[in-house]
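We were asked to recover a plausible sequence for a given structure. The inputs and outputs are reproduced exactly as logged, with field labels preserved.

PROBLEM: sequence recovery
POSITIONS: 324
GIVEN STRUCTURE:
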């Protein structure tokens, strides 16, 4: 599908009625970086820092991490790079830091692990801050936030790391900090969370899994895992509206953002930016460059009256075909 789309790599994601929506990428491996830049990514909405951790046999040192992060920040500079703090647990466990639990997705995951191990968190944040010196394109994002106190604790640690790096004589600026909204509790805490941070980002992969109570990796219930479920769509709309009430920006960095049919809905809902795998960048841009915001809003209004994820999905396909 992406074949022949290279021609639009350098063009902005602009609808025919001049609505501009930035398209960012999700990265982890260095190969993602080259593909992303070739396809005109405007920034990184999610850099999964656990990827370099998963590729090693022990925790990378502060200096090793600094080098890895510097590489990523330099490759995209001056574009912003959103680095998510370590999101292990769930389905991602490190061989050198095993976590054995009956219900890993409801267990010790993401921010829960790093707040229990502030030494891991501090090393990581210091490495990010040091890597950003002179580039100033770093944004830090916290995964699996469920309660406001987790953000308060994490902010406290980030400020501490910042002070430590400053005291080493490095001219590091305090980066914007954001949280992922991917746990249902966070959906109802968006305004309180937004007051604490600079930006929010919707993790539709986990949000779908937790809202629908469907394991995102279990083939037996894969037919039930559908981000077009009206409950997910309504949650996303609420997150966007509540974030904007606090004057903050909200992006979406789950797989949903890279689905052209969903991108139409998300744009109409007013999301500030879409972040996706580089593979989907050009087809999403191609789709959004052909549909007016006015039409997208009509489609959204119609979809929000429907109660079945599969019907929603197929009616979007139909709308796409008739536009195409
Ligand atoms: C998500 O949950 O939507 C997300 C982007 O994070 P991950 O897929 O890494 O859990
Ligand atoms: Mg997630």
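RECOVERED SEQUENCE:
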């Amino acid at each position: 599908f992406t074949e022949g789309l290279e021609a639009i790599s350098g063009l902005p994601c602009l609808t025919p009625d001049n609505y501009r929506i930035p398209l960012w990428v999700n990265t982890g491996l260095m190969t993602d970086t080259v593909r992303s830049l070739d396809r005109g990514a405007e920034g990184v909405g999610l850099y999964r820092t656990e990827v370099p951790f998963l590729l090693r046999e022990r925790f990378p040192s502060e200096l090793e991490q600094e080098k890895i992060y510097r590489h990523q920040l330099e490759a995209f500079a001056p574009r912003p790079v959103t680095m998510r703090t370590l999101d292990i647990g769930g389905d991602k466990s490190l061989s050198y830091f095993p976590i054995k639990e009956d219900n890993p997705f409801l267990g010790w995951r993401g921010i829960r692990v790093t707040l229990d191990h502030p030494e891991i968190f501090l090393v990581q944040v210091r490495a990010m801050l040091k890597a950003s010196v002179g580039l100033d394109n770093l944004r830090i994002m916290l995964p699996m936030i469920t309660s406001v106190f987790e953000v308060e604790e994490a902010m406290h640690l980030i400020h501490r790391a910042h002070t430590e790096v400053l005291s080493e004589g490095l001219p590091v600026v305090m980066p914007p900090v954001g949280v992922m909204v991917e746990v249902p509790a966070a959906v109802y805490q968006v305004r309180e969370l937004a007051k604490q941070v600079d930006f929010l980002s919707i993790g539709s992969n986990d949000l779908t899994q937790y809202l629908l109570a469907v394991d995102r990796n279990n083939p037996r219930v894969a037919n039930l895992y559908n981000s077009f479920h009206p409950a997910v769509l309504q949650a996303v709309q609420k997150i966007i509206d509540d974030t904007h009430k606090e004057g903050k920006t909200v992006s979406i960095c789950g797989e949903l953002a890279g689905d052209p049919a969903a991108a139409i809905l998300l744009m109409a809902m007013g999301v500030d930016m879409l972040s996706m795998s580089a593979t989907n960048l050009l087809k999403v841009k191609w789709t959004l460059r052909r549909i007016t915001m006015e039409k997208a809003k009509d489609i959204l209004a119609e979809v929000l009256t429907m109660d079945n994820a599969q019907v929603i999905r197929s009616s979007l396909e139909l709308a796409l075909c008739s536009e195409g």
